[in-house]
Model the fold of this input.
Amino acid sequence: MTINKELTAGDDIDSRCLKCKHVTNHTIVAMVGSKVVKVQCNVCRALHNYRPIQVEKKATVRRSGEKSGQPGKTGRISRELKAENNFRELLGGRDPVAALEYAMTESFTDDDLVSHPVFGIGLVTRMIPPNKIEVVFKEGSKVLICAPKEKK
Ligand SMILES: [Zn+2]
Done:
C-alpha cells in the first residue's frame, strides 16, 4: 500500500536553487528520517540544503505587501536615532566645525574631533601605535590609519 509517497534519496523534488534563482527540479541527495536535507539541482548540478518551496512563497507574499525597497524601515529608524543620540552624548556638545580633516598623512591624538569624507564627524577614542587611531563615528567605531605621532 502506498498512500503517501515516501521520498527517498535519488527521488526528484522541486526546490529553490540559489544559483538558478528559481525553483528547479532537484534530486534528493541526503535525508534525515523523512526530511529531505540535501539536494542537487538538476539544472546547474549544485549541491545545497533543501529549501521547501512554501517558505519562499510566504516570504514573497509578505514582501509584496510592503512598500517596495523599504523592508522594516521603522525598526531601522529608531535604531539610527538611538545611535545618533549616543553619538551626540559622546561629542558632549563639541562643535563639529572644529573637527580636523581626516587624512592618512595627518597625526591625531586622543579626544581629537575628526571629519572623515565618508564616515563624517568622529571622535578619536584610542591611539593604536604606531600609526592607527580608533575613531567613533555615528555608525560605529573604525580603525583608521594616520601618520605616526612624532611627525607632527
Ligand atoms: Zn541550479
